[in-house]
Design brief:
four-stranded antiparallel β-sheet; 2 domains; 281 residues; six-stranded mixed β-sheet
């Protein structure tokens, strides 16, 4: 599988604090990748290094080209949607579109016109009058109007209601993603994006704990459900994660384990995450 980005021995310090520790990743082209970690795990720092926003130690190559600090060449091919947009609230929606068109050589008029025509954005209203959801939609459509091949999303739907969140990811899939594009999504709302992710990165305390194809990862484990009275039997199999609810005990175990009186299901990504990282100090 062709790599769009190679990250080698990446370290990032803020003073004496080490935010990233010897990160090594080969990011494949044409995949949707989830980036999961607790608060402070280093997810945003990693993305900002990948974009060249931060100085770092190590090497980051984009199509074998080193990414340097404030490397404006990268903005022609890589787009970023952060958790807080940088829209100028003094401008109208139309003025914002015109401004972004004027400063971006990768702007695609045909794509932009199509996206804006299907949106319900009020072109004459100032950005400051828009709801958070509408601001996020505007930011998203501006980014999708660029001819880029790599999209980084850092908690892009924080503060949005469930309707906007669903529309957001549907737009990403419908208007951007294909086999030549790559998307990395950092989010705490794992259950809402799990169905679109193909690969997953678990990051903890600045270290990559896991980077794997999600389907292959899930095949290694299974979720078991047993009546509460069978909990002692279940515990004999050293489950990786245990939780209770409505008279039953649920657990995550290795695929080869069989538990008497158990029902089985495919594990959820959040349970795999908790099993790998939840108990780490």
């Amino acid at each position: 599988m062709t790599a769009i980005m190679e990250i080698k021995n990446l370290n990032k310090y803020f003073g004496k604090f080490q935010a990233l520790k010897d990160v090594n990743l080969s990011i494949p082209q044409g995949r949707i990748i989830g980036l999961l970690g607790k608060n402070g795990a280093g997810k945003s720092t990693l993305m900002r290094c990948m974009l060249g926003f931060l100085k770092y130690q190590g090497e980051i190559l984009y199509h074998e080209t080193p990414i340097e600090h404030n490397d404006t060449r990268m903005f022609k091919k890589i787009a970023f949607i952060p958790d807080v947009s940088a829209l100028d609230e003094r401008l109208t929606v139309q003025q914002t579109i015109d401004y972004v068109r004027g400063i971006n050589p990768s702007w695609n008029d045909q794509k932009a016109d199509s996206l804006m025509e299907k949106s319900d954005l009020p072109m004459k209203k100032k950005v400051k009058t828009l709801s958070k959801g509408m601001k996020t939609k505007l930011y998203l459509l501006l980014v999708l109007s660029l001819d880029v091949e790599f999209l980084l999303l850092d908690e892009p739907t924080i503060g949005l209601d469930i309707v906007f969140r669903k529309e957001f990811f549907n737009t990403i899939l419908g208007e951007f993603f294909d086999e030549t594009k790559t998307i990395i999504i950092s989010t705490h709302q794992v259950d809402e994006v799990e169905h679109i992710l193909q690969d997953i990165i678990f990051l903890d305390q600045g270290e990559v704990i896991l980077f794997e194809d999600i389907e292959e990862l899930k095949m290694k484990y299974k979720e078991v459900k047993v009546p509460r009275e069978y909990m002692s039997v279940l515990m004999q199999h050293n489950p990786l994660q245990v939780w209770e609810g409505l008279g039953f005990v649920h657990a995550l175990v290795h695929e080869e384990i069989d538990v008497p009186e158990a029902e089985y299901a495919t594990p959820q990504l959040v349970d795999l995450f908790l099993a790998k990282i939840g108990g780490r100090s």
